[in-house]
## 1
Amino acid sequence: MADAQRKIINLNGLWDIEESTSGETIPLRFNHKVEVPGLVNMAKPSFMDVDKFYGKEYYSNYWAGSGLVKLNIKADTMKIGYSFQKRNYFWYHKIIESIQGHELVILKINKAQFGTVVWINGKKAGQSSDCFASQYYDITSLINKTGKNRITIRIGAHPGVLSPSIPAGNDYENKIGLPEFMTMFH
């Protein structure tokens, strides 16, 4: 019996990206580009007010206090975050060639902040509320064996889109953490 071979397809590089307030409808057009791995605030053209939010943990951090905009709320009554943005989500989009000769195709996202939902060719592949953990999606049945494949990934633009039961955490040197080191195994 031959040993199984795993092929890794690196999906890092330039992705299309767009913003929205609704998390239900995939945008029809993607007017911005961003490098993955990378931060949304590096998109071209840039998004206005992309880093303008407070996580509950950040707002209650003693060391950050002097530089914060004062809100008429107490951190312990804040749901999970406060946003100064008019958006709730960012959508990453990439088209790749078909993947032939596979029995199993797994999409791995090393980390993405504020929740993740994945669509392959317009069909939902799965979702995760994890903010700093790797995520794996079995996309075998959704991948076209010939032609092109569309990968669309939605992430939250700020912690306020998460359920209060989800620990959003804070990464003080990175504001918006995004699909990092995306790979597919087959």
## 2
Amino acid sequence: MTKVANQNQTQTATPSLSSRPLLHAALLGAPLLVLLLPDTALAGAGGTEFQATYDMLIGWMTGLLGRIIAVAFIIVGLIAGVARQSIMSFAIGIAAGLGLFMAPDIVDAVVSATLPIV
């Protein structure tokens, strides 16, 4: 039995880190910035620049508009489920309505997790 080499395969050498000065600078610069500017890392817990917009969107999602949209999702899912003769369209409509209504609580729980400063 003889082995036949595949002529279509080409091997390219992976360039070393020293041949990529921008990548090298980024890999060294990012940890240095974290060490030099630690207060910037705590910026996620404060700031009220967008608080009014956030409150307005949360009010829409959990208020009457959010409930109307959630019911519309359920009705459209029900109609699509009857048309396709499948319960999955109805289940997707329920999940979308529930997701719209529960999204603010989920976002608050995920984003507002802070660690105490020692």
## 3
Amino acid sequence: MYSPPRTLHHDTVSQTIRSTSTSSHSSAVSGHFGHYLAPFVGSSSPLSFALLIDRNIRSASSLQAFNDAALGQMLPTPIATTTTTTVPTTTERADAASYNDEDYLNALSDEDYIDFVANFLKPTLIELVFVLVFFLLMLIGVIGNSLVVFVVSRNQSMWTSMNLFLTNLALSDLLVLVFCLPPTVINDVTKTFWFSESFCKIMLFLQNTSVYVSVLTLMCISIERWKAISSPLAVPFWRTHQVIVVIWLISGCLSIPEPLTLGLYPAEYARKNLTTTWGTRCKESWSAEFQQKYQLTQTIVLFITPLLIISGFCIHMSFILRKKALQIGTRQLRDRQRAIKMLVFVVLIFAISYMPVHLHNIATAFHIEPAEEPNLTIIALRKFIPRFMSYSSSVFNPILYNFMSEKFRKEFRRACCFGSSTTKPQHPHLLSRNSQTSKSMNRTSPNRTSINRNSVNNRSLRSVRYASVSAY
């Protein structure tokens, strides 16, 4: 196992590479940098730098390969020479085209060539900006989802099926934001996977599990809402807690196969003694043909099919509400419409957030090339934007609950201000008076209690399903 340098400073990189390099080896540097570990992302086979020079950056088969192509253009095979050439500055390397000069790179000495490699691996300005953006994204998401879990867990009046499922979504989002986002961003910016092979497998397992949990939870929410609106008097045929446990078990089982194929692959240098942690990647070991089938299957099963099913339930629920508008009260109708609206917005956020990732995965698997030659800034944007969209879904859900649910707004404010419970205690003398009154009524009319009990049970049977629709 390689031990990574502690910093990304230019001198540290140079020292790391020089420590195992000899001037007698002066061949091409080859390797695969910048592995993309977003949910469902596959990895393409490594391309040698020499091949990338011949085909230029247009030979890249994916956004992940774009990053390799840019590095490959700048690191062709140097010939043995004693000529010393000035190492380009960070500003100069911003344009990949200016480094497509093989004669220039061949003229580099071994020392300058190593400095050139180290200088290229330094994060660009656009990458540093995205580091800040992802940090803010993680901070907002962790705070928002933690508030959702805290608010629902402390208030039993909010323990409805809808809120428990939403809390389950928040838990899966917290899992991704805390354990997956930071190492993934570090991997992208440094173009190196610094962690162990076990952590590589665990990280992808958690990412895939979270996505499966989100999809299955959204489907359960839509089914539960549809059942409550279409058959409000029917007895619920499931327990929410048991369903949530089953969701996690199924998601975990579905997430096991892909991490088993993962492994760490250090960057391969033609200079045999040049070994370094820089460029190490975490990728699957299966074939390109299987990768194409796998990505298509995941997109259809985990994205297109759930969206069609949930959309069908939402349309049918809207039709039922429109049909029963005259049979139920205005307030009840408004509460149900608000519940459906929240479900629609949650599903839209999921669809918009994960669509770029699925499109990127398909482009990666089928080697869809860009029409024009991009520069390094475009490469970075095309790599970071799909990742930003996928992680943003973990941030927007708590914001959506705050805007659309009055109960969540009250509890969010109460949690932020460290307020007390929502239930206000009655005055002591009122409690004693009510207690005495009820006791006297029970003594004088023994049948009254049973009659009232039956009346309450009948009313609760009729209204329990209605209440579950609006109590979110």
